[in-house]
Amino acid sequence: MQISVYGDTLCAQVTATALAQTGHLVHWFVMTSDDHSRLLQGEPLFREQGLDRLFAEQFTAGRLLPCLYGTTPAQGCCVVFLALAPDSEPLASTILTTQLGDGCEIVVNQTIGPVGVAERLKKGLCEIGSKAVLVALPDLIQEGNAYLTFTRPESMLLGCENGEGEALMRELLRPFNRRKDVIHVMSLREAEFSKLAISGILATRISYMNDMASLSESLGVDIDVVRVAMGADSRIGESYLYPGCGFGGPGLSSNVLALVDVLHEKAAEPGLLEEVLRTNERQKEVLFRKFWQYYRGNVAGKRVAIWGAAFKPGTPRVENAPALKVIEALWAQGVEVAVHDPRALPDLGAWAQGRRGELALCDTPYDAAFGADALMLVTEWKPYWSPDWQRLKRDMRNPLILDGRNIYDPAFVRAQGLVYQGIGRI
Q1: What is the pLDDT of residues 35-57, one digit of tens each?
Q2: Which of 137, 144, 215, 340 has its CA 20 to 30 A from that of 87?
Q3: Where are the alpha helices (DSSP H) in 266-403?
Q4: What range does the domain containing 335 cover?
Q5: Residue 426 in domain
């Protein structure tokens, strides 16, 4: 089957690569000439473990063809995927009116936007006389593990109101739906709303646990013991119960904001979700507050090491990452900051350009920690899980460990002669 994928998002790259790997001929249209040039050189737009190699394989095999949006549409494509940046409804409408060939049978909207976008795109297809079926397949991939969550999904939300369209989508998704049927068919609006509702409950659980962690500290209770007890209750389950220094990235926060907008639009009270977002923004500074309290406000001229700048492990991106807010808070108090991250230093360096503070980008975790008055663990990359504690004790000016992800054993770290503070740990 010949397929066109439009977009310069991670979702577009994963979709194009996965469909090419299953034997389809995929024309991937990106929005800028710079991105097009990168793809033509075999360089993916997004780098994740495993995805880079698979993209290169499909590009070399000739099943994944980079194309530039605005040039001649691919001929003979019976399926078009829209995997655009969030809130790109005008661009999606333009693509449908200018890029669809006569043989297009189905348009798959993966673009995240307000509830009702798919219905408006469907109406646009009717207005231009297209017989293509419009379906919604909201993006549920998890950055850092994007390819696996697309090709081995726990769930797929398919908004489809046409039997022939559903049959074609099931055939397209068949290679990713073998062990059990994970495709949930519903209306267009239900699929869009389900995506936002999922993001809302995940964000709520995280912020709730962060509130509980703060309370546990004042009560002298270890939140990790409480977390295990909560997760053992089948009504709650174990997922998304880990307190920490806040969530970031381009997806979760924007989805919750979109849900808040829906509530405002319908004159409903979005108090809970707005508080979830406020709690998360406060939580991003929790490590700074611990650092400030430890030194009783005498922090000017001190040096802080940060391990992890990406908004989550597995990605090089720093969009909306907790580390950014911590760095800005430290800079505001005249603190020197040294950062290590296995993959995100280029993005972090670009973000820091022209900003007011002093930022050292370090080649190794221990380079960042050398001479530091505190070490903040912000992103829990695997290489950080088992450090050389004695080396840290020797190299740091003051061996204060501020664990923003609760990955260390407090008793063990303290037994090594370091000072440990976590999130709700005792």
Answers
A1: 999 999 999 999 887 898 999 99
A2: 144
A3: 271-283, 286-294, 322-332, 345-352, 365-369, 389-395
A4: 284-421
A5: no
